[in-house]
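Morning F.,

Quick status update on the modeling queue. The single chain you submitted on Monday has been processed. Sequence for confirmation:
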Amino acid sequence: MSEARRPWRTKWGPWFGSALLLCFIVHALWAKFRLNHVALNLNWDEFNYLSKIYQFQRGELGWALQTFHVHLFAWLPSVEGNEAQQLIAARDGLMLTRLLTCGFVFAIGRALLGTLAGLFAVAASVSFSLLMRHGETFRADPMLACCFTLAAAALILRPGHRGAGMMAGAALGLGALLSIKIALFAPTLALLWLAHFYLGEQPRRRTVEQLVAAAATATLVFGSLLLWHSTGLDDSGADTNRRFLGRAAGLMDAEQLFPHGKTLLSTLRWDLAFWVLCALGVMLCFADAVYLEGRARLRALQLLSFALPLSTIVFYRNSYAYYYVTIIPAAALTTAVVLARLEARAARRPLLLISGLLLLLWPLHHNVLRFSEFNGGDRITLQKRVIDGVHEIFPEPVPYIDRCGMIASFPKVGPLMSSLMLERVRDAGQPIFEQLITRHQPKMVLVNIASLSLHRPYKQTGPKSHRLLQADFATLQKNYIHHWGPVWVAGKFMRQLGGKDRNFQVAIAGPYTVEAETDVWIDGRLRKPGEVLNLEPGSHRARADEAVDLRLRYGEHLTRPDIKGKGQIFEGLGFIESDPKTDTKDKAGAAAR
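Structure tokens below.
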């Protein structure tokens, strides 16, 4: 009996299985959508990504590469609320990107393995732990996954078609504007084209024409949009772009294999079912590529190509937890090979098919439940309170120092304090903050990384690999005093000021409020407690008629917000590893970056 005329008793299995998988996918995506709004801590990389938009709109952005998102998300600064609420809106926008990626993965899986297997590939990707954590975080990675899966879908669904090649090229050109990380997919694309060239049913001339159309379109899209984007940038960024390209090459040559092996081991424990299915799928496809011929070999090579990006984990220095967002959606296609084989062998036994599907789906469902349970707390409100507090202290933007540009609407001073950047500063051995303070006059330090813990001794400011230069740390301690929560403001503290003049240096010009228990003499003039005086950069002197502690705090009686909160501003980039049976104190224990 033909497939189209099979009686209901034999064909209900695929229909029921497809409905079951659709329900699971919707449930997983809805659970993730809810977690994005409250439970999943906004990462410092997301704030840095947002700050680029503000820099561009202020005319301060000088970095053309990997900043094209400033056009795609130019609407974010108009979102009502502070920077944290704008990032939540960005996550909502990227949920659309996630849905598109799921659609492209399904289209590829349906073309190669069938409808049921295509849906299973989507289910495997949406339940993967690191995609549950970072799938919509405001970075280039979710958009790169969408661009790549779009390009791959165009090539597989319309082999040899020039229009499909142009669509693939446009997606890859846009991806290259968002991040040069798109180059990591080159081996996959090369294998797809070679497989079509040697094994495809269409004439080889058409495959070559499609390749030329894709390459030409990618070059045109990338070049024209980059040129347009560059016209709105600060001219001072040209050298930065060249330095960035030089550094990017180094990221592909890690000093050791598996530079982030801990993240891989963590996901191997958490997503064991995914990795087992992926390994089985790769082995089955490899066997098909060796022993079969024609269309079956072509399909096996196409599926194997989607597993190739997983090999970058071995050498790519930035294969942090969020990097898996880029490579897992396509790799999930290999997990569906097992279900496709089961479906082929259970064509007339729907109960066997559904039983096997439930067996494969259960660990994925368990992942979603565990992740939702372990992330049931509120890890964003504290961040909102910190940002609200800063805006209350400084209603108008002021230059400031922090880790990542967390107050994106304010101009940040100093480098992004990533582990790689701090390592380069330490290797150079040249202090940078004294010159930066003199030039940019930052009024505030926001302590959102251990390296900026000005209340601690230098050796207690986090791991040695993440510290500032000691001279830079001393410069910050010398020029800032604690004000509120994680906020330090420009100021001076002199303990037990007495009858002799004591010289002090001011680096940041502006109004300062006198805080002392008695009158004090500053630069030869008697100043009362609470009085505001203007200080210029340079040397000043102070004395008192009796021993007294003196604070000179920047600003005219800066407010101290009545906002309270306790906890870490930023949590680790990893995912949840705690076990509720053994870890009741901290269900949010995450693998630190």
